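Figure 2 data, in text form.
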Amino acid sequence: MKKIIVLSFILATAFSCKGKKQERESITITTEEVADIVHYLASDELKGRNTGTDGIDKAAAYIEKQLKSYGVNPYFDMFLDEFKFKARAEDSIKGYNIVGYIEGNDEKLKKEFIVIGAHYDHIGFGKPVENDSIANGANDNATGTSAVMTIAKYFATKKSNKRSVIFALFSAEEMGLRGSDHFAKRLKSQNIDLYTMINFEMLGVPFKERDYEVFLTGFDKSNFASKFNEYQGSNIIGFSEVSKQYNLFKRSDNYAFFQEFNVPSHTISSCDLTNFDHYHKVGDESGAMNFQFLSNVINSIIPGIEKMINTPTKEIILNEE
């Protein structure tokens, strides 16, 4: 009888551990949590999150608090990475990147880094429409910010990354990519071994009549898209002719990392401006976002990122020109 009781305990414990393991392996980013992030960042309270304003300071405090709650560590001594710059003839403007970090769990691979980023600033105010002048910046780029934050939450919870991952939310993108330029140069001065940089922009609305979910800027510069789709087992990332035509590769925060490190550095987006009429307008509000699509995209992308972070060698490389 005693042996039966002991055996029953062992089996119960084993199944309990298995259940917990399965629970850890099926972490899902919910529609509600991405909606909560976007709703706050794009709220009228933050008045468009222009760099150097009280509104973006509130956004920074919110993002920092969330990252801490996920168990993400600061990359530097603190989460805020301060920089200053002059915009036109104005006085010097102070901006803050928010930089989190999860060290890799492999003794060798943890010396290699991946940066996952998005800008969290917007333009502040725009042309008034029906007495509304706040350019809330829901799609641009509260959605991309929510992607970085929830991906950080995933890896902080699962602790599955062999390489080290930096999560960077940039300020002053709308003023000339200032935050990412500052941060890329700062990382370069540390001589880190950067594998790749993934940037997220405008993920709040789906394309129509395309055979992929998101496009990649600088599609032909590396094998990122083909390798990522291979990791995913699906054609999630595609090519946008509009992105190539307007050289969107150079117009977001991925570009500074390509310049400084000459490694695969791309932006992932579901908006090449053919499917969204409110770019830099007051109509870019939370109510126009498709949060189910946003959460689906994030959940679809995470396995590919996880595979990329854990491959024994650097499989994503620049193409020869």
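Caption note: Residues 1-24 have pLDDT under 50 and may be disordered.
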